Amino acid sequence: MASIEKRTSQDGKTTYRVKVRLKGHDPESATFERLTDARKWVAATESAIREGRHFRTTIGKRYTLGQLVDRYIKEVIPKKKAWSQGQTVQLNWWKAKLGSQPIADITPKVIAEHRDILGEEVTVRGTRRNPATVNRYLSALSHCMTIAVKEWELLDDTPMRKVRKPTESRGRVRFLSEDERAGLLKACKESSNPYLYPVVVLALSTGMRSGEIMGLTWDRVDLSSGRAILDETKNGERRGVPVTGHVLELLKELNRVRRIDSKLLFPARQSPQKPMDLRSPWDTALKVAEIHDFRFHDLRHSAASYLVMNGASLAEIAEILGHKTLQMVKRYAHLSREHTHGVVASMNNKIFG
Questions:
Q1: How far apart are alpha carbons 223 and 9 in whole angstroms?
Q2: In the prediction, which pLDDT does 335 show?
Q3: Rounded mean pLDDT of 296-302?
Q4: What is the CATH code of the structural domain delimited by 65-162?
């Protein structure tokens, strides 16, 4: 049974106080500014109680987003692939902004408002987040909410379904010119860190991601056949990578002086069970080579670009880089104009003479 009480404040503002009482259940109450909203809430609440869905709403009013994030980080994140560990930072951003709010009050409107805040905030690097980064933050929260619905039964549905994601710009394609490549390799070779040069050559030769390289162990590298097997990849699938030429010789040399207390190809000096942190020597090498607007991940773009310009098809590049579809490698298509022009010319010559 429900009751709706009309109230008028001293300033003349009217509100409607609603109470729902059903036998065997605790009473529920809420206040609305419009009578129609009050009646809708009564119908929805009574229906939820009768159908056994109301307990989730009740829990959702007591369970804060901060508690949800903490539980997710503790129980879900450790089971994920190594590359996804960065989601902890993203989820803690949501916790800092909305951690005290009950998850039942995290509406699509609230998320959309903070999506816009994400895009306008200036990061520690002094730049605003791009749409792709904003989407990563939204994806982290989305999976957290999905687990709350499907596995922990804290909510009936996730508000993320109604939140629009920003349109991402076309993928960045920054690759090294001939002079830049020569200068960077020279700086890396002269670096005080002995691992920097082989790491960079490995990235340029294979297109492997930073995490894939730094997590590579000797038992996954076959120096006799020139092949590395990647178990921990971004798309979750095992991938074989050809290792040949100069980089193969570098790895053979590295193998002769490898540390016996670590399986890693590039272990940290003090903690050999962890990979070496090459951020500082990498930044130094870029400064020495006078290369600007270039990130380590751009070595992957460089490898792909060189493959295209040397006649590799997009399908071949996708296989080497570990992309499930051709969509991600289409960004390199413009680099193969001469190659595709030759293919079309050859076809026409055969058909028309």
A1: 81
A2: 61
A3: 90
A4: 1.10.150
